[in-house]
Amino acid sequence: MPPTPRSPGPAGSELPRETAGVIAPPPVFPLAVIALSELLRWLSPLPLLSPDHAWRWVLVAALFGVAVALAGGALLTLRRARTPVEPWKPTRAVVMDGPYALSRNPIYVAFLAMQLAYAWARPNMWGMLLLPLTMALLHWGVIVREERYLTKRFGAAYASYARCVRRWL
């Protein structure tokens, strides 16, 4: 068997090039489901709220703001740890601080919050009803693969982290 290709890691160490092998870039899943919800809204509208509810926009802004802050904090935490956010690049470290202390997948939680904010903003009940589809696609297309990869790559360190921090919230 040929040796595993390696890339330089921190302080000159070598890291294998294996990756999680996700089936698509993670943002594709919520975007595809939002597109599907819009198609369904066009074919069979299911309004979430009457457009005249002013508080709806407060909820939309708050939820979207929390989602952006969560995703931004997660990206900044990954950058500080010098590990890539892209799941098709080798992970350099198990990140356990910042938003990763609350959820193993804060960026995916942010995607769901953004999809929910979008559904409320439209208003489109399909966007809410299809939230479990987005979760399933992220779970089976990304998270399961990432967890398998991280367990193989980091062993006990990742297993311990996974026991202490929830997958979603």
Strand order of the largest sheet: 1-2
Task: Give the class from helix and strand content and strand pairing.
Answer: mainly alpha
Q: How many β-strand stretches?
A: 2
Task: Average the pLDDT over all residues and give the rounded result.
Answer: 89
Sketch the topology as an H/E string, one letter per element.
EEHHHHHH
CA-based gyration radius: 18 Å
Number of domains: 1
How many helices? The count is: 6
The parts where pLDDT drops under 50 for at least 5 residues are 1-15
Share of residues in helices: 55-70%
- Biggest pleated sheet: 2 strands, antiparallel
- Estimated share of beta-strand residues: under 5%
Net shape: elongated
How would you characterize the overall build of this protein?
- By secondary structure, the chain is mainly alpha-helical.
- The protein has one domain (26-35, 50-164).
- The protein contains six helices and two strands.
- A two-stranded antiparallel sheet has the order 1-2.
- Mean pLDDT is 89; it is low at 1-15.
